[in-house]
Amino acid sequence: MPVRVRSRAAAPARDPSPMTLNPDAYDLPMIASEDSFREVVKKISIYLTDVIQLPSTFEQLRTTSAGDSLRVLVDHLNSTCTNPAIVNALLALKWHYAADHDEYSQGLAETRSNACEIVAWRFLTRLSEREAVDYCLYEIPNPKEAEDEPSAGDEESTERSPLLPSSPGWSGSRRSMSGPPPPGSSMKRYQLLSSLSRLTMSLHVDADDDEDDVDPTAPFISLNALEIAAVAGAKRFLAQHIVQKIVTGIWNGDIIFWDTLSVKAEKKPRFYNARTADPFSRLRVPRYLKAWEVFFFSVFLCLYYAVLLGEKDPTKISGTEIALFIWLAAFCYDELSEWIDAGSIFYAADIWNLFDMIMMGIGVAFAVLRIVGLARNDATIGALAFDVFSLEALFMVPRICSILSLSPYWGTLIPCLKEMGKDFIKFMVLVVIIYLGFLTTFSLVGRENYALPHMAMNLTKIFFGSSSVGFEIMHDIDPIFGPPLMIIFVTLSSILLMGSLTGMLSNSFSRVITHAREEYLYIYSIYVLEASTSNRLTHFYPPFNLLALVIFRPLRLFLPSDDKFRAGRIVLLRATHLPIVGIIELYELIRRRIRPDGSSVFKGPRPSHSHSHPARQRPRPAVERPPSSYPVGLSPSKPTAAGRDDDVMEGARSLATRVAELADKVDNLTALVERLQPPTTATSFQE
Q: I want to staple 455 with a disulfide (CB 3.0 to 4.6 A). Which of 42, 50, 180, 450 is the partner?
């Protein structure tokens, strides 16, 4: 189903100035609207390879004359390029250059990687908000096998919902050892990188020479720019205001990918229209998914305390314990589905998923011990099962912090703690080696008075601050070697090692806190994309996912028709999730009454066709919008507040353009001043 397209107004012509960069000095890539993703990647890569010949830092590319070629490229793309895959290509190249581990060109590859990221976000800042949505959510099509792609029903039947949709021909229900790797897995990541490497290695090969070869960019088919940015680790790009506004729009449900719940439903990005969208499509909104996750986990926590603090009978199972087992099974199945859908790379990107995996392991151990104890009628094994399950609180209670991680403060602090924990573990390797050396010496020297376990406990007390214990036992260990060795150990543990650890953690915190917000926004963006861009139409909330598992997994043997299978899942979803949808609809109704314009996030200016440059009159991909370009409920024939808002936004757009031009002139002035400086100063600055 084709989407409606529109063209973007050209930027106002700049006044001739001696400070303006000369585009004729660069061999700029000419990117046509009909160029494929493969061609766009090659053209951009050739340009960056030619203009970036010396390593530069990210800040130098952004603020000094080292980034002149990037400013020229952005101006060129803004005035001539309407290819929808331009942002996708830039972010794919950013990942390719960042993964270049050649020790002779690593600095140059990092510079080109930063250049791609800078060009991508600067290009987006020249667009209106609605056009930025079009570019960021544009999915790379399959130019050759579009008619052979699996239908939505096929993808639904696999019950897979990858963050990165699989390449053509890959079916989750027909996996084989020779098939493509799961999306998001390490093999998939390697496949994506290898495809770009093969492409960039043949930059100067004529198109006729490799026309019949397999398209090396095939693994990127059906990925949008935000998904490529997530897998590429483009944290600066994802942290940009315009990109975060799109991510927030997806989080709030202003931008949706499914607007109906039917067998023939098609996934594509569109702006939410409350009058035409199916209410059950709101189940895929990340904000409501997170709200249900909080509710489900709260009930899980209550059942946990009810079982462990109540009467624990090792010989029989109570009703509360049965409910806990149901909740535990739903939790494990939901986490397993999420891991399969997202892949190991994206699943491990969220630190709370590590807690979930440990919770799953403890829960499975508890269930196994409980079943064995009941089968053998062994009260000892039953009591051990409850003791093992008590360990769940070590991870279940801190898991509450995952709710706080959505707050910018906690979301910024948690990455710092995560990195400090990594540095602490690395430092403890050195501590353990030194500890084992002293433990061996003291155990051998004082073997007549102290056994190995007793000596290990004494040294542990000394390491954690009880230095007096060491001075009390040093003569008993050995009159000659005991005192000097113990003084050395106390000095190392209490002064050198602990002081070094404190200083290292302080430096680690200071280093990470400067980029912690980018880390927070990166994790937040990954969560939103995982929850919203799934290829699965029907997503069952836990514990209802157990019903889908019990009913439809066996039915796959009797329902070969994918449409019938999908229709059955839709019926079950409507029956089980009706109360949840009712609560969501009531909440949104109240919110619309309190804030009538709260749902209209993207009010970018409409292009003025009368002032558009002829070169810009090309179609560009557009996210499907409501039938009227005006906010829902407003008539275009009447002057409304929305129309006045558009006029104000148009003026703001003009002002933003002028500010951007002024910023460019300031950058050019800075570059000119640097050129007028003495050669030694300029050279040292560039280095």
A: 450
User: What are 347's two structure tokens?
Assistant: 């699943």
Q: For the segment 56-76, what is each residue's pLDDT rounded down to a tens digit?
A: 888 899 888 888 899 999 999
Quick one: 381 and 322 in the same domain?
A: yes
- What domain range includes position 318? 285-404
- The set of residues, in sequence order, having a beta carbon less than 8 Å from that of 596 and lying 6+ positions away, is none
What is Dmax (Cα atoms) for the chain? 101
Find tokens 């690395």 and name the residue.
Answer: 426
Structural domain contains residue 28? no
Q: Which of 48-52, 551-555, 629-633 has the lowest mean pLDDT?
A: 629-633
Q: Indicate if the pLDDT at residue 683 is higher than 50.
A: no
Residue 159: inside a domain, yes or no? no
CB atoms within 10 A of CB 426: 10
Strand partners, 6: 620
Which residue did the predictor score with more confidence, 437 or 221?
A: 437
Q: What one-character DSSP code corresponds to residue 84? A: T
Taking the C-alpha atoms of 574, 579, 581 and 587 in order, what is their torsion angle to the nearest 10 degrees?
170
- State the angle between helix axes of 241-252 and 286-309 in degrees (0 to 180), rounded to the nearest 10: 60
Comparing CA positions, the residue from 62, 60, 74 lying closest to residue 29 is 74
Say if 555 falls within a structural domain.
Answer: no
Is-contact 505 442, C-beta < 8 A?
no
Domain co-membership, 382 together with 436: no
Provide the H-helix boundaries in 253-350.
Answer: 286-309, 319-349
Measured between alpha carbons, how far is residue 503 from residues 32, 422, 513 in Å? 55, 15, 15
Whether 272 has a pLDDT exceeding 50, the answer reads: yes
- φ and ψ at 466, to 5 degrees? -85, 70
Residues 375 and 432 in one domain: no
In the chain, how many domains are there?
3
pLDDT at 305 over 90: yes
446-449 own/partner pairs: CB under 8 Å, 24+ apart: 446/473, 446/476, 446/477, 446/478, 446/482, 449/476, 449/477
- Lookup: tokens for 102: 């050649």
* The residue to which tokens 């409920």 are assigned: 633
